[in-house]
Amino acid sequence: MKQYEYSSEVISVTATSQSETKDCSVRAFATALRCSYDAAHTYVKEKFNREHRKGVYGMQDRLVSLSEETQECDGIRFDLNPIEDIKLKNIYKVHGELIERRKTVKSFIESFPAGTYLVLVSRHVFTVCDGIIIDNRGEEFRPTRRVESACEVVVHPTAIQEELSFS
């Protein structure tokens, strides 16, 4: 069973992608929406105030505020549904005492095996789609990173898909 995909194999290389660094937020949106890197780059620049060659700060708070209305990127309409903080914690019993701990990436995938999610860990964001991590090379051996927050990405069916479902 495939558990990991490289974002560079999902996203087509563009002049913009080759000139960028610290672009995990752009790659996460491009892989979650299956849209072009350039479209995701424009979306993240406009909605998250991302500067060229710099990361996004305050992404979790911005995702929450953007969840209030349907979003659009490259003609793809989608909703952002932040995952409640309590669902991102595991409860363990240690010496008779209940202890809450943040889920790891591995336990997040076990809890959310279906759907598309933007997963935020310390200073990084990536996509989990139907249990498969889509991230940069070199990140695949880090399943114990703690999940700080996550947001489900729900893509609206296109008009063509809606027509086919009524046929």
Give a concise summary.
The protein is built from seven helices and nine strands. It is α+β, with helices and mostly antiparallel strands. It has one domain (4-166).
Can you walk me through this structure?
The structure is a single chain. The protein has 167 residues and is an alpha+beta fold. It has one domain (4-166). The protein is built from seven helices and nine strands. Strand 2 (71-73) and strand 3 form a beta hairpin. The model has no long low-confidence stretch (mean pLDDT 92).
Task: Write out key terms for the chains shown.
167 residues, alpha+beta, globular
Poorly predicted regions are none
The termini sit apart by 34 Å
Strand content: 25-35%
Give the helix level as a range of percent. 25-40%
Q: Can you write the helix and strand succession as a string?
A: EHHHHHEEEEHEEEEH
Backbone shape: globular
* Structural class category: alpha+beta
Oligomer: single chain
Please describe the biggest sheet, giving its number of strands, its sense, and whether it closes into a barrel.
7 strands, mixed
How many domains make up the 3D coordinates?
1
Mean pLDDT: 92
Could you give the count of β-strands?
Answer: 9
Q: What is the radius of gyration?
A: 17 Å
